[in-house]
Amino acid sequence: xxxxxxxxxxxxxxxxxxxxxxxxxxxxxxxxxxxxxxxxxxxxxxxxxxxxxxxxxxxxxxxxxxxxxxxxxxxxxxxxxxxxxxxxxxxxxxxxxxxxxxxxxxxxxxxxxxxxxxxxxxxxxxxxxxxxxxxxxxxxxxxxxxxxxxxxxxxxxxxxxxxxxxxxxxxxxxxxxxxxxxxxxxxxxxxxxxxxxxxxxxxxxxxxxxxxxxxxxxxxxx
Length: 222
Hints:
The protein is of the alpha/beta class. The protein has 9 helices and 5 strands; from the N terminus they run H-H-E-H-E-H-E-H-E-H-E-H-H-H. It has a 5-stranded parallel sheet, covered by helices on one side. It is globular, with a radius of gyration of 20 Å.
């Protein structure tokens, strides 16, 4: 049930979902008449823990109005050591989709790396299977999260309309994160969240949550 109000920062991602991706589904007939095509693929790049997958779910819940479904898939779910098994999994996944759906694949670079860099036949099989599935099922919008968009196979990237950066939170966002977390983890007045926000440049939202859990544990231990 996460919404965009629960996700601090990542405004470029939110705006793209609201003004481009979801806008199409809200105005599908008009867009089709004007020749505005559906977004087929998006790559969201950023460090682990910045909230790439979370913001996707939040945007669909907040802006989608049940016009579009979404499925979150860990890249490891699509891989297999047995030849042909990964292709079968991908084919089954896409064949079940009968309405407009976002397929969000975490760490997509690990399974669709450039074929020039791959020595594994199985890795090439996964890449080819996803490309075929995307071309066959026009209901699917692929969203891949990654730290390394430059490693993604060129054939996949040709099906991507936008690469959006999910940056580290700035000072203002970090301060808001600490404030929001304190609603869950109440700490005493000895904890100065303004100082913590200054000292955590380059930290992710997940890092901040970890810090507060540690602080809370230290206080309870006292």
